[in-house]
Design goal:
Largest sheet: 5 strands, antiparallel
Shape: globular
Organism: Mycolicibacterium hodleri
Oligomer: single chain
Structural class: mainly beta
Helix content: under 10%
Protein name: Acyl dehydratase
Strand order of the largest sheet: 8-7-6-9-10
Distance between the termini: 26 Å
Order of helices and strands: EEHEEEEEEEE
Radius of gyration: 16 Å
Strand content: 35-45%
CATH class of the largest domain: Mainly Beta
Pfam families: OB_ChsH2_C
Number of domains: 2
Number of helices: 1
Number of strands: 10
């Protein structure tokens, strides 16, 4: 069943040829992001050329997905009618242990218990009717 909120279907991502490996990995409950040997670092968001070097050397590598909460905000007002049933919503940026940051949502946590710097772990949320798995995060202690 598709996730619904006040009868508005939630918008879902549409993979492109560049982002498809990321979404395919999520459907397997794994996280794969790009790594650039020329810059010796992980890269996110998916792209064609390595940032900084513009090398055509990006390769997909699996990461743990573990990280720390870099920043967050608690939204008490839905950003659109699609998310009306989701407030309060903890919108966040997670810093993966491998380096890049990822915009996401914190789930399975009370807003008052969330702190910058806290350890977090991935939560894979499947939307089978849409053929998409979304990556969210929860406190590592949950």
């Amino acid at each position: 069943m598709s996730a619904k909120s006040n009868s508005f279907p939630k918008p879902m991502p549409i993979p492109t040829p560049t982002t498809k490996p990321f979404w395919d990995a999520l459907s397997e409950h794994k996280i794969r992001i790009q790594y650039s040997p020329s810059s010796r670092r992980y890269v996110f968001y998916p792209r064609i050329l390595a940032p900084g070097t513009l090398a055509d050397d990006l390769e997909w590598r699996e990461i743990s997905g573990a990280g720390s909460l870099h920043t967050f905000t608690v939204s008490h007002r839905a950003v659109s009618p699609h998310f009306a049933d989701d407030v309060p919503q903890i919108l966040a940026v997670v810093q993966w242990d491998e380096g890049p940051r990822f915009s996401t949502e914190i789930v399975n946590a009370e807003p008052d218990a969330v702190r910058v710097g806290m350890r977090v772990r991935p939560v894979f949320t499947d939307y089978p009717d849409d053929g998409v798995t979304m990556l969210r995060y929860e406190p590592a202690s949950a």
